[in-house]
Input
Amino acid sequence: MSTSTETTGTRAPRAATAGRRKAAGGGPRRVRRLSRRDKIVLAVMVGVPTLIQLLLIWIPTLLSIFLSFMRWNGLSLADIKAAGLANYAYVFNDSPAFWPAVQHNILWLLFLAVVATPLGLLLAVLLDQQIRGSKIYQSVFFIPVMLSLALIGIIWQLFYQRDHGLLNFLLGTAGTPQAVDWFGDSSVNIWAAMVAATWRHAGYVMILYLAGLKGVDPSLKEAAALDGANATQTFFRIVFPAMAPINIVIVVITIIESLRAFDVVWVINKGTNGLELISALVITYLVGEGQSIGIGSAFAVILLVISLVPITIYLSRVFGKEKKP
Amino acid sequence: MSVTASTGRRLEDDGGARRGGSRPRYHYGTHIFLSVMAVMWLVPLGWALFTALRPKADTDKYGYFSVGGAFNFDNFVQAWTQGGFPHYFVNSLIITVPTILLVLLFSSMMAFAVSRVGWKFNITLLIMFTAGNLLPPQVLATPLFEMFKLLPLPYWFSDSGSLLNTYISVIAVNTAFQIGFCTFVLSNYMKALSTDLTEAALVDGAGIWRQYRSIIMPLCKPAIAALATLELIFIYNDYFWPLLLIQNGDRLPVTTAINNLQGTFLSNYNLLAAGATITVIPTLVVYLLLQRQFVAGLTLGSSKG
Output
């Protein structure tokens, strides 16, 4: 019985599919009929990745929120005690590292937004012209993008080192008492770390904008030139607005990179002594002596809440228009 | 088919120089600026390489800011053996290769399901996947660490009695994180493929798996190649998860292990520089051979709009 219905069942939709396809002219397509086997295959295709995502990303994220309201030393599940808002009270009022970390995260964001990202855009605009050696320049600026931030920390450590680093030599202070320990001195190390981060970020932005600039219709520029606009006007009034989709991506990447800044400062001094960042505080409280899981989780939740801003902007930008129809 | 052709062209364009009609212009100012920037860009790397090539005895004698003395690869040899690099590179390989394969397998299946089969939760799932990839890893580090620590495992499976200190923990977390990004990229790519392709297959009675395996996946080769290259660099460069999940120094991948060299080599900056340079080499190989794929992967993720 079931076999016969299935075979007739397959034929009918086929005819319907062909007919509808002609009528709709190949509009958005759905699979009209799925066999039981197809359904199982689909369930696996969707189920396994979704399970991985839930288990290793979203459940831990929810647990972070849960743990931020608890007091726990991380040893046994039975030791978890409710703490109310105590962890947050501690973070906001008593934690010596929290407000410096917030300041540093904001500074990091501003530095990337004001220095690194515009530098990347400038490089992209210059290299997008038909100049000789454009490929070579691109390759040079691109090298740091392929390096890990941890390695970047070490490479710049060699450059910044107090007695043997190149920078102090170039400044003429090497070996003198004025020599600055760029990564060690808490008054300058955040700036030194941000310069190292810029080394990578600018190249990344450059690559994305180079792709974006190639996507801009050349006739727009020609039309602007015919109307008497100079290069600067053409760029700011025509080209830059035409790259709106890429601009959003760059804004989001810049914000997220500044929240994710962790590797560089951890390599330098584990995020202490002038290099406090919220992300580093989470880990300090996790691996530290006190094992105050609750306080570390409160830092994680603060980081989460801030991160949701750029994530929401990005998602609404990317998926917003798909949801409407 | 026209869609695939145009996506293919976009991939090629990203790395290629443009040949164009307008008259040649001379950009002296631009060249000066770019040259200065390029030199500044190369200085930190050049300094590391320069230091690495000089024996410690010579830098002690002549100073680091000199060109006196010998230049050779002794530091590299010493760093390679003393630093335990062969071991760390193997660890990197053990972590990176399975992660890339798993990420591409899962994300291509997921992308296929959400982009080629219409059903209710497509967008919701895709949003969940994309958002997960954008979270700072530290947001979920603590619970993941505790989950892995408290999950008891038999000792024949893991000598730590838990998931901590295993390659599997790092592979699993990296896979989960990267699936989001790759699903997003691949689903956009698959959406751009003509619907007629799978319609025709459907008429021929091809099931979902055949459509995925024999029709869609072969057409996604450019995107898969780009993503594989990108993920290779991402996973190789991952510092954080092994730092958190692997305490046993013997199991660290090279990117996380080099941090320990600062302690091992103490204040021997020549050795440290050589170690850092060795770590760059795999990246450099990818850079030279697969730069186009890498750039294509980076821009694929952002060109949606």
Notes: Chain B touches chain A through 113 residues (CB under 8 Å). Confidence is low (pLDDT under 50) at residues 1-23 of chain B. The two ends of chain B are 21 Å apart (CA to CA). Chain B has one domain: 2-9+85-300.
